[in-house]
């Protein structure tokens, strides 16, 4: 393994992290890039988030709601910003100035990874593109995240998650059936193209770091929201590629499995996911309709899919006869996969979610404490490390410039007076 690009004291065995030897220069904002950077920070990397003086990441103001300070008043940190920026150090640098560009180049020389999500070609005019920084640090891993990638007819378009969900086919599959009330295309409840691009970018960065550690060679990573949206359609892609027929929307039902959908109980909704004939048989037995398991129209999954318009209304009437709690208890006892549809207050009150430490609390400079969501990555030997709450704008500018670049206080003060840093 080669030496890392920056000096750090070895952590004790109890504090070791997977990426504790890595420094990431994060030039991204909004969601896809910050999500990748937050994953790397959780895994122990030192992440330096670079923002515009005065304004910062757009999502800082994407509220309400905002984090409350210790007196109950709104802080400047929107909940949206808090979702994707824990564990980072924040510096404010105006990269449109030659002095700001020099600072970024010097930081890149001392970093292992650069993340950016500017429009195609935008950083080249500042001398902060991959080819420019590669001359300063040949083993640099440089990841660009855009809507449509670095080539192709759409490369220079701005990329927005909502638009990509439509262009990439996701919304053709999501939403109620066109022939039912409320039918039509529907986006996901979260920015799924952004989030999945952040996840794929994380994988790409770690693969590139592994290659660098084996060979000493850096590389460029070209991530596009549209590519990711297309790739993540999984079995629906293959349904089309094997049949030549674009899949339709099925709402809360499954195109290939019946019953595998939501049902209304007497007091709420449940999900029933009968993935095989045995589970279907147990489901109708619990519902007091065992004859439905032996009905020749419904005896196998292919037949249930063929006759779904006949079977599902019968099952829906059956499910309405019991409460949500009764159904879940009886189906779980029978071994039929099922579950409730929880609101977020119910999610974070769920004992399983609590047992998995999916809600965390970290010290925050204005709120006192910030309640955040934990990482789902559970590593036995190098567990995730929650290094800090999402930082205030420019919170670490002085510290980073002094410790990483060894700038004297007088030079930092002059850069501040010129508005180049904050």
Structure report:
The protein is an alpha/beta fold and 422 residues long. The chain folds into two domains: 13-231 and 356-417, Crotonobetainyl-coa:carnitine coa-transferase, domain 1 (Rossmann fold); 260-344, 2-Layer Sandwich (formyl-coa transferase, domain 3). It has 18 helices and 13 strands. The chain has helices at 32-42, 79-82, 98-109, 130-136, 161-167, 170-173, 192-215, 225-231, 234-243, 277-286, 291-294, 301-306, 308-319, 324-334, 344-349, 351-355, 397-403, 409-417, and strands at residues 23-27, 46-51, 66-68, 74-78, 88-92, 113-116, 141-146, 219-224, 260-264, 269-273, 338-340, 359-364, 368-373. Strands 5-2-1-6-7-8 form a six-stranded parallel sheet, sandwiched between helices. Strands 9-10-11 form a three-stranded antiparallel sheet, with helices on one face. The protein has a two-stranded antiparallel sheet with strand order 3-4. α4 (130-136) links the parallel β6 (113-116) and β7 (141-146). The radius of gyration is 26 Å and the shape is elongated. The model is unreliable at 1-14 (pLDDT under 50). This is CaiB/BaiF CoA-transferase family protein. InterPro entries: CoA-transferase_III_domain, CoA-Trfase_fam_III, CoA-Trfase_III_dom3_sf, CoA-Trfase_III_dom_1_sf.
């Amino acid at each position: 393994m080669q030496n890392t690009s920056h000096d750090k004291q070895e952590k004790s065995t109890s504090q070791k992290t997977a990426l504790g030897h890595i420094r990431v220069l994060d030039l991204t904002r909004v969601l896809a890039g910050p999500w990748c950077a937050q994953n790397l920070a959780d895994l122990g990397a030192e992440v330096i988030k670079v923002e515009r003086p005065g304004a910062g990441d757009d999502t800082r103001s994407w509220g309400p709601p905002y984090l409350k300070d210790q007196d109950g008043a709104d802080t400047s940190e929107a909940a949206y910003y808090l979702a994707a920026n824990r564990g980072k150090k924040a510096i404010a640098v105006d990269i449109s100035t030659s002095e700001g560009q020099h600072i970024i180049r010097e930081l890149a020389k001392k970093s292992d990874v650069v993340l950016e999500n500017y429009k195609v070609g935008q950083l080249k005019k500042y001398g902060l593109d991959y080819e420019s920084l590669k001359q300063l640090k040949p083993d640099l891993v440089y990841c660009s995240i855009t809507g449509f990638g670095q080539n192709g007819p759409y490369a220079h378009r701005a990329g927005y998650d909502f638009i990509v969900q439509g262009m990439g086919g996701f919304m053709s599959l999501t939403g109620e059936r066109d022939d039912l009330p409320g039918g039509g295309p529907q986006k996901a409840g979260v920015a799924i193209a952004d989030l999945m691009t952040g996840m794929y970018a994380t994988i790409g960065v770690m693969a590139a770091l592994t290659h660098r550690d084996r060979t000493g060679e850096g590389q460029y990573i070209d991530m596009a929201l549209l590519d990711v949206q297309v790739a993540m359609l999984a079995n629906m892609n293959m349904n089309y590629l094997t049949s030549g027929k674009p899949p339709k929307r099925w709402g809360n039902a499954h195109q290939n499995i019946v019953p595998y959908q939501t049902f209304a109980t007497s007091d709420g909704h449940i999900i029933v996911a009968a993935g095989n004939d045995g589970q279907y048989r147990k489901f109708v037995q619990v519902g007091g309709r065992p004859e439905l398991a032996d009905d020749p129209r419904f005896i196998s999954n292919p037949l249930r899919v063929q006759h779904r318009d006949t079977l599902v209304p019968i099952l829906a009437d059956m499910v309405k006869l019991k409460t949500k709690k009764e159904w879940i208890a009886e189906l779980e006892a029978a071994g039929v996969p099922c579950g409730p549809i929880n609101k977020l207050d119910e999610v974070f009150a769920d004992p399983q979610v609590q047992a998995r430490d999916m809600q965390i609390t970290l010290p925050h400079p204005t709120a006192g404490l910030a309640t955040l969501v934990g990482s789902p990555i559970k590593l036995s030997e190098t567990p995730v490390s929650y290094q800090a709450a999402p930082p205030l704008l420019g919170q670490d500018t002085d510290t980073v410039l002094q410790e990483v670049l060894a700038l004297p206080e007088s030079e930092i003060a002059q850069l501040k007076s010129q508005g180049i840093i904050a």
